[in-house]
Structure formats: C-alpha cells, structure tokens
C-alpha cells in the first residue's frame, strides 16, 4: 500500500484529454467520443474549469431511445456533480474517490484531473491505474 501512496496522479494520468463545451450538441459530443475512442468527456467552461462530465453510455443510450433532439446540448444532460482529483494527489486518493463516489454498486471509471486553479489538465482512468499497479508487481 505504501508504494501506491508514492504514485502521484500527474505521473500516470493521460494529459492529452478531450473535452467538450456545455453548449455543444449531444450528437456532436457523441461523435467526438466515438471518433477519439474515449468513454467520457469532461465538460469545461471558457476558463477550462471542469463543470461536468458526459459518458458514451449515457449519451448513446439516450440517443437510441430518442430522449434527445438535435437541439439538446451537453449542459442539458451532463452530470453536474463531477468528482475530480488534483494532479498532486496520490493514486490512493484517486482510488478512494472512484470507490466512495460511485453509485454504490459500481465505481467511477475515470476522473478528470485538475490543477490547483481547478483547470482541467488530464484524466485518470481505471486502465491507467491498472497499468501503474502492474508495474509494481
């Protein structure tokens, strides 16, 4: 466990993160998710502050059941209470957030990573964490 505490989020996160504006359309965002082969998009304001998150599953499911129109925007559908992790926090801190803030049955699969000014600087996924742990073994 001590070795996990020594791993810092910024050292294992993905820094080249795709994000979306709250004013983007859901179809545009869904296309960006598929094109970039990512499972979520942090939603950022004009100051690059994380204000929400959308997932492929959420958007795709609702597009299939015709819940959205062409006018539906990300701000209409995003999860607003987004859990983030600071780039200077430890891997253990990220793991705890993924577990504690899940819906009880599942964990959060990815967390937007922010700096001390709450600006989006990356994303950390369960895959990033598994790779980091596997290097310790």
UniProtKB/TrEMBL annotation:
Pfam families: CBS
Coiled coil spans: none
Top-rank lineage group of the source organism: Archaea
Keyword vocabulary terms for this entry: CBS domain, Repeat
Keyword Repeat: yes
Cited PROSITE patterns: CBS
Domain CBS: 13-72, 78-137
PANTHER family the UniProt entry points to: CBS DOMAIN-CONTAINING PROTEIN CBSX2, CHLOROPLASTIC, METHYLATED PROTEIN MJ0556
The protein's name: CBS domain containing protein
Organism: Methanococcus vannielii (strain ATCC 35089 / DSM 1224 / JCM 13029 / OCM 148 / SB)
């Amino acid at each position: 466990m001590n070795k996990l505490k020594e791993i810092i989020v910024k050292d294992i996160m993905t820094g080249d993160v795709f994000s979306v504006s709250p004013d983007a359309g859901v179809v545009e965002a869904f296309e960006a998710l598929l094109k970039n082969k990512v499972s979520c998009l942090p939603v950022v304001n004009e100051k690059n502050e994380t204000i929400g998150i959308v997932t492929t599953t959420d958007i795709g499911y609702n597009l299939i059941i015709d819940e959205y129109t062409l006018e539906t925007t990300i701000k209409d559908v995003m999860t607003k209470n987004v859990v983030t992790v600071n780039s200077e926090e430890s891997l253990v801190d990220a793991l705890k957030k993924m577990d504690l803030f899940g819906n009880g049955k599942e964990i959060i699969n990815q967390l937007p990573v922010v700096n001390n000014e709450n600006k989006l600087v990356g994303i950390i996924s369960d895959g990033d964490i598994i790779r980091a742990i596997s290097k310790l073994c």
